[in-house]
Design goal:
Blueprint lengths: L2 H13 L6 E2 L10 H14 L3 E4 L2 E3 L2 E3 L2 E3 L3 H9 L8 E4 H7 L9 E6 L6 E3 L2 E7 L9 H11 L9 H13 L3 H10 L5 H13 L6 H6 L26
Parallel strand pairs: 7-9
Antiparallel strand pairs: 1-3, 2-3, 4-5, 6-7, 8-9
Length: 244
């Protein structure tokens, strides 16, 4: 690799904001081939000039008085949730998202992404990334609603909180949705497990929103009981949806 090529790549790296993830193709120019770029970046990572996040993905770490800080979650999984045309192919869910929603204060080194196709979990820096199948199409407009449905789905498994605390918070979050969003979330819930549909139905009824509830109710087996251990004080409409 020539001195000129190395300088061009270093100039590119230094022009980037710290913790912005880039690939070898980011530095490719007319006089820099992909192979030369990859080789140069690997050498720079080995020398500690930059950090390697994953195969072919690098960043210039941010230095603070407390030490080195790595990329934020959005940078770590950016290529896994957005395609090259900037269309969503996944979204953040699981414990990290549930913490942002106020459902827990637990911090996790696991990143969970909702996706349409199954993928094996991978390692990204200090994070382990796992994938949860999402039965609905993923759009920029419905991601917030899918995250809420995932929280309902996993409300019994959220670390640092119990089911009743989680449901109380979920009632608040669903209540903040617009009527249009409430109508949309009832439709998005249909491919989810029956207990998710039942719990959403009970929450909607408790909030006084009726549109779409008949469809939710018709999708459930009237003989099935759902043991979610939610008191009537927290969710007065629970028995209407066979929740115990």
């Amino acid at each position: 690799m020539s001195v000129k090529t190395k300088k061009q790549i270093l100039d590119y790296i230094n022009s980037q904001e710290p913790n912005v993830v880039f690939t070898a193709f980011s530095v490719v120019k007319d006089d820099i081939s992909p192979d030369a770029a990859r080789m140069a970046l690997e050498r720079m990572a080995a020398k500690g000039i930059i950090r390697k996040l994953d195969k072919g993905r690098y960043y210039r770490p941010k230095q603070t008085m407390f030490g080195e800080i790595g990329p934020d979650i959005e940078q770590v999984v950016g290529d896994l949730v957005m395609d090259k045309n900037h269309q969503p192919i996944g979204y953040l869910t699981g414990m990290i998202m549930f913490a942002q929603m106020g459902l827990t204060t637990q911090i996790s080194s696991w990143i969970e992404l909702g996706v349409r196709k199954y993928r094996r979990r991978i390692k990204r820096g200090r994070y382990t990334v796992s994938f949860i199948l999402q039965p609905n199409p993923i759009t920029m407009e419905n991601i917030e609603l899918l995250q809420l449905l995932d929280a309902i789905r996993f409300c019994r498994e959220i670390s640092g909180t119990d089911t009743e605390e989680a449901v109380e918070r979920l009632i608040f979050l669903v209540g903040k949705l617009s009527n249009e969003q409430k109508s949309q979330i009832t439709e998005l819930a249909l491919p989810y497990a029956p207990y998710v549909r039942a719990l959403l139905g009970a929450i909607m009824e408790h909030l006084g929103f009726k549109k779409g509830l008949q469809t939710l109710r018709a999708s459930l087996n009237p003989m099935t009981r759902y043991r979610l251990y939610i008191s009537e004080e927290i969710l007065p409409t629970r028995s209407n949806w066979n929740i115990r």
